[in-house]
Design brief:
There is one protein chain. The chain has 272 residues and is mostly beta strands. It has a single domain, classed as Acyl-CoA thioesterase, double hotdog domain (Porin). Helix content is 12%, strand content 34%. The protein contains 4 helices and 13 strands. A 13-stranded antiparallel beta sheet has the order 1-2-4-5-6-3-10-13-12-11-9-8-7, covered by helices on one side. A hairpin with a 4-residue loop joins strand 1 and strand 2. Helix 2 runs antiparallel to helix 4.
Length: 272
């Protein structure tokens, strides 16, 4: 399936816009091409956010996504539309599981996601938010606007050196989002793929771009993605040409909103 890419005047400028999917037959949804972003490849956070949005259209009312696991199969192109095909597993009393296949001219990503009807329970978190200056006290950190839309970022001081990509940043969505908690969950998924904890791993300066293999996110609490969130990433291991890192997302009060893990390629550059 192909269609012309949007012209510069039609490019989306907000996350809310790219989460507006067109329903096709059955549980299939279409996202239009976003045009030439300066880089042909799609940002993985966009694929995940749109996939969760597609799945949310198929679950019983009131159920909110609480976990997601994605496998990135091939690079996607920003110049082609994206098809999200949702497969329904049988719904339980409180939980719904969905599998989503993401395609352009071929399959580029597959995800599974779980949704739950919320209820109260004991509150606990083992991790404390690292010391970080308030985002209002920091200058704007320039992102790629054609890939990150209205995601705003600020970089607090990080006592450990990093290479090329920050491992700690404040982020929020500037344009107001709807009250739908799944929309705010999609926004956090979008943020969760920003940077890489492997930029603190030994030998990272000897490898090139770190293509993602898989990405998992667990959402612990509801929140507003229009408020500042601190993304904090740490390397876990590198071996066998792969690297894995973990991360956490906190609100300004230090409440743990989400946990994440990602594995990427981690190969030394080879001469052509």
């Amino acid at each position: 399936m192909t269609q012309p890419a949007a012209t510069d005047g039609e490019l989306p400028t907000s996350l809310a816009e790219i989460l507006e999917l067109t329903p096709l037959s059955g549980d299939v949804f279409l996202a239009p091409a976003i045009g030439d972003t300066g880089r042909l490849s799609l940002y993985g956070g966009q694929l995940v956010a749109q996939a969760i949005r597609a799945a949310a259209h198929t679950v019983p009312e009131g159920r909110i996504v609480h976990s997601m696991h994605a496998y990135f199969l091939r690079p996607g192109s920003s110049r082609e539309p994206i098809v999200y095909r949702v497969h329904r597993d049988p719904d339980g009393g409180r939980y719904s599981t969905r599998r989503i296949v993401v395609s352009q001219s071929t399959e580029i990503c597959s995800l599974s996601a779980s949704f739950v009807t919320p209820r109260d329970g004991p509150e606990f978190q083992a991790s404390e938010m690292p010391q970080a200056a308030a985002p209002e006290q920091l200058p704007v950190y320039q992102l790629e606007p054609r890939r990150t839309f209205d995601l705003e970022a600020r970089l607090p001081d990080d006592p450990q050196p990093w290479h090329r990509w920050p491992t700690r940043l404040w982020g929020r969505i500037r344009e107001p989002l709807s009250d739908d908690p799944n929309i705010h969950a999609c926004a956090l998924m979008f943020l969760s793929d920003m940077g890489t904890g492997l930029s603190k791993a030994p030998a990272v300066n000897e490898v090139g771009i770190l293509p993602s293999l898989d990405h998992a996110v667990w959402l612990h609490r509801q929140f507003s993605a229009n408020d500042w969130m601190l993304l904090d990433l740490s390397p876990e291991a590198t071996a066998g040409g792969r690297g894995m890192y973990s991360g956490r997302v906190f609100d300004c009060d230090g409440t743990l909103l989400a946990s994440l893990a990602q594995e990427s390629l981690f190969d030394r550059r080879r001469p052509r």
